[in-house]
Amino acid sequence: MSVKTEINCPDCQSPIVIESNLLLAGQSFKCSNPQCHTSISLSFSETQKVAQAFNKFEEIRQDAVEQAQHVS
Amino acid sequence: MSGLASMAQQFSGLPMKSLLGAPLKAATDANGMMARTQTQFMLSTCFDRKGDDLEPIMVSFNITRSIVKPDGTAATPPTATVKFTLPLLTLIPLNSLAVDDVKVHFEMEVKSSTSKDNESSQEQETAAKADITAKYNAGLFSVEVHGSVSHNSKSSSSQKEHYEASNQAKYEVDVHAGQLPLPTGVTTIINAFTKNIDPIMLKDEAKAN
């Protein structure tokens, strides 16, 4: 499952919406400010490190869903 | 009235405390467990332990910016790409998983109905008939009397009783795990790390002097 997150544009501080799957696939993300033509992408060398973090986060997210089901 | 009283008694006997409290307590326990798990995840995945200190794990990004001439036209090359680092912590939507909605639906229907149909049915039929003829002779006169008597009677009765009672109870608990806003402390840490990507502006020494 893809995780959506936001970081601020280093240039104009407008939000840049990042989707984990696309980020790991090497896609670049444009700043939401139409006047700012900045785009960011993950360095290829960091892909594995970030993928592991997202995978672990997905695991604890699944645990959270199971906990919620257990409550009901 | 006695029927209503017994119905109220059926409601007062319900363990409302456990019916409502148990799911809420379970949700709170689940939230506490999730928070602990996420904190452990944050510390183990997003930080490197260096002795007693924790250092954030940084991730390199490429940033591409447009280069524009003073007249507004694109420069050659039109873009410049530089590297910058960002804490891994800022990429993960941390501590936002929790049970955010617990709904307890409780429906109870106590239906009690009594109907008593009294139908008396007793059938009895009697019939009697008598013919009377009497003649009396007195000299030249003669009297003759004819009579008839009849009697007919019919009555019926029957008894029927009907009683109906039903109890119905429905108990539903809906729990939804969703995203909550980050706590202020975590937001402050993330903001502090995010500012790392801004360049440090040095003062112009010539102007300062």
Uncertain segments of chain B of ≥5 residues (pLDDT<50)?
A: none
Distance between the termini of chain B: 97 Å
Output the strand order for the largest sheet of chain A.
Answer: 1-2
H/E element order of chain B: HHEEEEEEEEHH
Overall strand count of chain B: 8
- Based on helices, strands and strand pairing, what is the structural class of chain B? alpha+beta
Describe the SSE topology.
The complex is a heterodimer of chains A (72) and B (209).
Chain A: E1 4-8, E2 15-19, H1 20-24, E3 29-30, E4 39-42, H2 47-71
Antiparallel strand pairs in A: 1-2, 3-4
Chain B: H1 2-12, H2 16-45, E1 47-50, E2 53-56, E3 58-68, E4 74-87, E5 97-117, E6 124-138, E7 141-155, E8 160-179, H3 184-194, H4 205-208
Antiparallel strand pairs in B: 1-2, 3-4, 5-8, 6-7
Summarize the structure.
Chain A has 72 residues and is of the alpha+beta class. Chain A has two helices and four strands; from the N terminus they run ββαββα.
Key structural traits:
heterodimer, A: 72 residues, two-stranded antiparallel ribbon, B: alpha+beta, 8 strands, 50% strand, rod-shaped
Explain what you see.
The complex is a heterodimer of chains A (72) and B (209). With 72 residues, chain A is α+β, with helices and mostly antiparallel strands. Helix content of chain A is 42%, strand content 22%. Chain A is built from two helices and four strands; from the N terminus they run E-E-H-E-E-H. The two termini of chain A are 24 Å apart. The relative contact order of chain A is 0.17. By secondary structure, chain B is of the alpha+beta class. Chain B has a domain at 14-115 and 168-198. Chain B has helices at 2-12, 16-45, 184-194, 205-208, and strands at 47-50, 53-56, 58-68, 74-87, 97-117, 124-138, 141-155, 160-179. The two termini of chain B are 97 Å apart. The chains are: A alpha+beta (72), B alpha+beta (209). The interface between A and B is large, with 38 and 41 residues. Strand 4 (39-42) of chain A pairs antiparallel with strand 3 of chain B.
